[in-house]
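forwarding from the other thread:

> can someone predict this with iron/sulfur cluster?

sure thing
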Amino acid sequence: MKYAEEDYLMLSGIQHFQFCRRQWALIHIEQQWDENLRTIEGEIFHSNAHNDNFIEKRNNIIITRGMRVFSHTLGVHGVCDIVEFVRDDHNGVSIHGREGKYTIEPVEYKKGKPKCDQSDILQVVAQAMCLEEMLVCEINKAYIFYGETRRRETILITEELRKLVADSFKEMHQYFDKRYTPKVKWSKSCNACSLKEICLPVLGKNKSVKDYIQSKVEEN
Ligand code: SF4
């Protein structure tokens, strides 16, 4: 199946979807957004990596920043922080306007300590899958660069991860088509969620709306 361009979802939404399906729906279907310290720090960090159309060459590597990517089969579009084209005349593919052949490796920037959680991993794997479709190549590995250690972690792109990415986007398209926002399901993630004031996860902890409002009134 191929999606029409007007039905594309944002690639970066896969990290929200992994974190909490309701959070993804609140942001991407209901257009709700609330910033907390974590999201603001993340945006500042990303703005340093993104520099549209910036291309740099270091020895045998061409580095692009802010490269736009898409996939008809996943029905998504987005931006890669960094894509590295590493000269490899044996295993690489040709790139328009460049001599030789190159292997292709996306690098996702994240602030904080290395955690390589599923949401970070699926995001960079999704970027690799878009690049494969656009450049007709195979990508075996990608990287996540963590700001606190200033080190990159290698992510091997397995069939299992590819399936998880494809299944996640399929489910996101189904939710989006029905404009369906899942109900509150309280978890530890709620404490760090930028939307907790909008979502009111406390309602999912067997508290009635009346009791919730009453407790808020008593707090003030
Ligand atoms: S507060 Fe909890 S349930 Fe609500 S969107 Fe955030 S993580 Fe999901």
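The chain has two domains: 5-182, 185-220. thats all i got for now
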